[in-house]
Structure formats: structure tokens, C-alpha cells
Amino acid sequence: MNAMTYHRFGRTGLCLSRVGLGAGGPSRLGTLRGAGDEDVESLIGCARDLGINHIDTARAYGTEPAIGRALQRLNAGDMMVATKVDCFRGPKDEAPTTSMGAKRLIAEVEQSLTDLRREYIEIFQFHAVRPAHLDTVIDQLLPAARQLQQQGKIGHIGITEDPSVDHQQQMAQAAVSSGHFETLMVQYSILDQVAEGATFTATQQQDVGVFCMSAARAAFTDLDSLHQALARHGGATSAAFEELLDETTTVADLAFQFAAAQPAIDVVLVGTGRPDHLRSSTDAILRSPLEGERLQWLREQFSCADGQLLWIDN
Fold first, then answer.
1. CB 52 within 8 A of CB 4
2. pTM for this one?
3. Is CATH 3.20.20.100 the classification given to domain 6-302?
4. What pLDDT band is residue 97 in, cutting at 50, 70 and 90?
């Protein structure tokens, strides 16, 4: 296992491990598959042993209470936490409406503090914001987040995209360019390289810390899923793709290595409920970067993919 590396997280000044433990996704720390407190504690303990120093969660994931209990039992107050609140209800691709005002947002964050058993959250993020709602976030909800920041309840304010609909990352680019947000979470994958354009240009200009989500999900879960996605792509064949693998590299490993090769990404998130999966994924991310030819082939073959291909059920 390669040693963990640590990176300045944009203008937040935080020093975050290259790998972050993600508490969402189809596993949610294993809790959606029956994992209990002991399992979550074991997983977070494994993360600490690997040198991971932060966890990404959200109110919507339902994992904050389990994380809080585990961190308390592990006496892991030094483990940093980023959490998120989804402020919108109803059709999100229509005119911006929200059922959550400033008071409700404050109450949600204070509930996060209670569930996480903390007095302070290092990073608060507006969750899965779509382009039509960015102005509402900035004009109506950001002042409440600033209030929480001034009260010492949250440290830094960020935002995350919704890749299920915003395939060109319009919201992410506008949010970063606004200068209001210190962190950004975006989808970046072999089959979704949109961020390499205007998104990463903006984050580097504004010195915004970047979380990468979904690097090895969906099409990269296993070879069958990859075959389905590549069949839809109509370009690179499964055989050509599999030539990039070897006896020690799974398709998920390759996807993690691809994300880790992008210097504009500060943190690659791994969502899992299994310590063995966390160890193997961390090892892939920390391995030597992809060789030039393999990396170049992947970028050339899938440079036009915008994320719709990544999710095989779309």
C-alpha cells in the first residue's frame, strides 16, 4: 500500500488526504445493506489507518448519526467532516422554488451538528444544485450559511452539482465563477470528462478545492456494466478497453487511477461499506499515475462523453 498524500484544499487552507471516505452512493457506508454501528466504526477505523482524514456525508444520506457515534467511540475528533443539505423540493429543472428558507437551513445544519456529535463542521455544501436554482442559493440561502459561519458552526462553504441533469456542468461553472464558494464537488470519470474544460479552468482561477465523485461508479462497477456502456458508446470496443487492464488492475482501479491523474482534482471520494474495498480503491488512487499512452487513449476515446453514458440505466 502506498503512503497517503495530503493536499491543500483550495483557498480553504485545509490539508485533506488525497482519498476521502464517501458516505453516500448505493452503499451509504454499508447501512443500506444492513451494516450496523460496529461495521461503520470498523470502516471509519480502516479509513483512519489508511491516512484518510475526512468524510463526506449529507443530510439526505441518513448516515450522519452513525458517523457521529463512530467518531465518538473512536475518539476521532480530528477526522474532518463535510456535509450537505438539499434545499429544494419538487421538479428541479423548472423555475426555482424552494420549501426551505433560511431558518430551515439553519435548523438542518444544527441537526447535522447534533447527529455528528460535533460543535463544528469543517465544510458545509449546498447539495445537488441545478442551474435554475443557483440564484436562489446565492440570494436567499447563502446569507444563512454565512451566519452559521460567523457563529463558528461551519468552517467553509461549498456547492455540489447534480450530474443526473446538468450534463455540461453549467451550474458548477457559474457557481465557481461567482466567487461565493470555496469548494466544489463534481462528477469526473473516464466516461464524463466535461470538467476538463471550463469547470477546472474556473476552479483553478478561483482557487476552489475540488472533490471528485463517481469516479468508479455505475459503468465501472464491473465488466458487465462496462460492456453495456461501451456498447452504447459505439466507439471503443470492450476488448480494446480491457487491454488496458492487467492481473492486478480491475476496471474500477483503472477508473480511480484515471481520476487521480487529473491534477485539478484535490480529493477522490470512495463510497463503500467494506474495508477491503476501501483499501483496494485507496491503493489504486495512490498508485503511480497511468502511463502516458494509456491515459492519452482514454482521453481521446471518451473526450466527448458527458456523463449520460456513465449511468447505464439512463
1. yes
2. 0.95
3. yes
4. low
